[in-house]
Design brief:
Strand content: 5-15%
Shape: elongated
Order of helices and strands: HHHHEHHHEE
Helix content: 25-40%
């Protein structure tokens, strides 16, 4: 299994403009925002793009703040996301001792429970038709 790569924020070189209604009506495929998202989601389809817009992510700046990563959709992809996120944030440490894990995690044995009880309020997931789940921060 390949581990998801958590995307870091970076300076954008596009002008941060809201999408125009006519761009959405025409399919948005020529829209710079649509093309920008395709850098992170190469197989982006318009229907999924519209789901992103419906979640309120309408500018490149919002995309950079919201998009976290994409992983293959599985029955436990939320748990995989949480474990990788917690590891990337450094909470798991380099040793096997429980002292490296914060108390709010030690009360949960199951990573799915961490998603359900702790992180689903801060992140959300969207599934596309290609079998990929995309994770986003709610704070953008």
């Amino acid at each position: 299994m390949t581990e998801p790569k958590i995307r870091t924020n970076f300076e954008s070189y596009y002008n941060y403009n809201k999408l125009k209604d006519e761009d959405l009506i025409s399919g948005g495929r020529e829209d710079p925002f649509f093309q920008y998202i395709k850098k992170d989601i190469p197989d982006l389809e318009y229907d999924f793009y519209q789901n992103i817009i419906d979640e309120g992510i309408e500018t490149i700046e919002q995309w950079e703040d919201a998009y976290v990563c994409s992983i293959p959709t599985t029955i436990n992809c939320e748990a995989q996301f949480v474990e990788q996120l917690i590891d990337d944030l450094g909470y798991l440490g380099d040793s096997d001792s429980d002292s490296d894990i914060p108390e709010f995690l030690t009360s949960h044995i199951n990573w799915q429970e961490v998603w359900d009880c702790e992180l689903s309020h801060d992140y959300f997931a969207l599934d596309d038709d290609s079998g990929t789940t995309h994770f986003f921060s709610r704070y953008f």
